[in-house]
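Good morning C.,

I know you're traveling, so I'll keep this short. The sequence:
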Amino acid sequence: MGLRGRPAAEVLLTEDERETLQRWARRPKSAQALALRCRIVLAASNGESNTGIAARLGCSRATVGNWRDRFVEHRLDGLHDEPRPGKPRTIADDDVERVIVKTLEERPQGATHWSTRSMAQATGMSQSAITRIWKAFGLKPHQVEDFKLSPDPQFIDKVRDIVGLYLNPPDAAVVLCVDEKTQVQALDRTAPVLPLMPGVPERRTHDYKRAGTTNSTPLWTSHPAT
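The tokens, ready to paste straight into the viewer:
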């Protein structure tokens, strides 16, 4: 039953509709609002009640009833947000989806992240179109945040000691930091990179696995004053 005792609309799917809904619902990183709507419709097509669907998917009965009715009336097109007043759109939903998925799930060859220029070349769209799509979905591939998680209980004290040594070294001292051996490059981060999400930049630890490091601890040596 739907809201206020009204019978819930029956949802019957074609094979093509079911395949499309399942594909949209499997998006691991993008279009989560659309994915939820698809899961609602798929559950409704299996005969689940609005109450049962709402409880299982963590949304309200009103939300379930709304998207069930929208699908019955408009089919797949009804699952997208209603158009806003203004100039008609010139970019199809499939193009928007393609850009979002490519931004979140792929990397350009020979680069660490997409730019509007490289994405435009890869999709055959204009840079301004890419900019509008990224802005609408809060995507900023160029923005990266660093984080550091350490299990060392003395981590804060050690950081203070090292930073203090650089900021205020002893008199007549030279502060040195011995890093990696020549031509040995470190590429792998010490923790998995947290991927780009709509409204959330890519996040990664600031340090990486050392390759051939002899010593990464700052040193100081005293010299007679001259």
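Safe travels,
E.
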